[in-house]
Specification:
The structure holds two protein chains of two kinds. By secondary structure, chain A is mainly alpha-helical. Chain A is built from nine helices and no strands. Chain B has seven helices and two strands. In chain B, strands 1-2 form a two-stranded antiparallel ribbon. The chains are: A mainly alpha, B mainly alpha. Chains A and B meet through helix 9 of A and helix 1 and helix 7 of B.
Chain lengths: 202, 182
């Protein structure tokens, strides 16, 4: 009995699929045409964007915009306005930035970027160029000669000397007591009467 | 306004007498300083004198003068330091001071007497110094001879003094500008 039921349901599915296949065959030229049109549109858009980016017009327009006194004054007004400050404050207060940063780390994007930077040798080239630059060594010289750094180094040196001195003094005081005890024991003399320590509260 | 305590010398220092080992180390340091200066000066003088061709008796006389200068330098070293600060450089490094029995600073005469006492203490195989081990105030022969004692003199190190000076400077700036953050 169950075998008869399966066979009849398969037959019913076959009959029901006929209209779908008929519609597909009828519309195939139309869908193909629409797909090609969409691909041609995307290609045209890409070419247009490339053309715009490659053209000198865009650069000229951007330079003109940057040099424009009106745009500059507008930007200055915008930056000075309380509205921008409020927006920036809200941006920081809302925690959106933290979310963005968390998301960047969670997705592993940062790891991938860092790995890519190392794999492509960008970091190596960066450090090669950095080490080859005179500006870096000039900066290091400036920092090394700065009063804050020299003071910190000399402070550290003095601190080390103090530490050594304290250690030597502590050991020599112990040696004083030890020598005294040994000498008195050898000479059968009583231990030294140590003067009482003053009250620390005084 | 909250002020941070600046480390300072103790108001009532405990009188603690210094023993033989510490004083011996200080003496080694002083001897190194004395001899280093003497060697450098001696080499300089020898180089200068080598330019001139001096007869034998003059050389002998100069050697005698050199020896006298060396003795004077050594005695002067101790007299000057004991009678001015109460500490030679070695004493300062080991943080102790030479004072009279009542805690006053030594005068030049007493410093000279102590110097002579040290020489006498060293004559019988340094036996005079070993008295330090048996005296309750840790006095050697030279101390008994000159009426002095050697006591602890804790002081701020150079690093601590610098830090204290910086702290004082910072506090002074803060007093002038009370609005500064802590």
């Amino acid at each position: 009995m169950p075998e008869n039921n399966d066979r009849s349901s398969a037959r019913a599915r076959g009959l029901l699929g006929i209209p779908g296949r008929a519609a597909e065959m009828t519309l195939r030229p139309l869908t193909g045409m629409m797909g090609r049109a969409a691909a041609a549109g995307v290609e045209a858009e890409r070419r247009a964007v490339d053309w715009v980016l490659d053209s000198a017009e865009l650069e000229r327009a951007l330079n003109a915009a940057v040099d424009s006194v009106r745009i500059q004054s507008s930007l200055e007004r915008a930056v000075d306005s309380d509205g921008v400050k409020r927006i920036v404050d809200r941006l920081f207060d809302s925690g959106v930035l933290e979310q963005v940063i968390d998301r960047l780390f969670e997705t592993g994007l940062i790891d991938r970027v860092i790995a890519r930077l190392f794999d492509d040798g960008v970091i190596d080239r960066f450090f090669d160029r950095l080490l080859a630059s005179d500006a870096l060594w000039h900066l290091i010289d400036e920092i090394a000669a700065s009063p804050a750094v020299t003071a910190a180094i000399s402070q550290q040196g003095l601190g080390f000397a103090d530490q050594v001195g304290d250690e030597v003094r502590g050991r020599s005081r112990k040696a004083d007591d030890w020598l005294e005890r040994a000498a008195r024991r050898l000479a059968h003399r009583p231990p030294r009467v140590v003067p009482p320590e003053p009250d620390p509260g005084v | 306004m909250s002020l941070v305590a600046v480390p300072s010398e103790p108001a009532t220092p405990a009188v603690r007498y210094v023993g033989l080992a510490t004083r011996a180390i200080a003496m080694v340091i002083d001897a190194a300083v004395i001899n280093l200066v003497a060697i450098v000066a001696g080499i300089g003088a020898s180089l200068i004198l080598s330019v001139f061709h001096l007869p034998g008796p003059v050389k002998a006389a100069l050697a005698g003068i050199g020896a006298a200068v060396y003795v004077l330098w050594t005695v002067g070293y101790f007299i000057v330091f004991w009678s001015t600060t109460g500490q030679t450089p070695g004493d300062r490094l080991m943080q102790f001071r030479v004072v009279t029995q009542d805690g006053a600073r030594l005068g030049p005469r007493r410093a000279l007497i102590r110097c002579v006492g040290s020489f006498l203490a060293a004559l019988p195989l340094f036996a005079g110094f070993f008295l330090i081990l048996f005296d309750d105030k840790r006095r050697g022969f030279q101390d008994r001879f000159a009426g002095t004692v050697v006591i602890e003199a804790s002081q701020m190190s150079l690093a601590e003094r610098r830090q204290a000076a910086k702290r004082a400077e910072y506090l002074a700036v803060r007093e002038q500008q009370p609005g500064l953050p802590e």
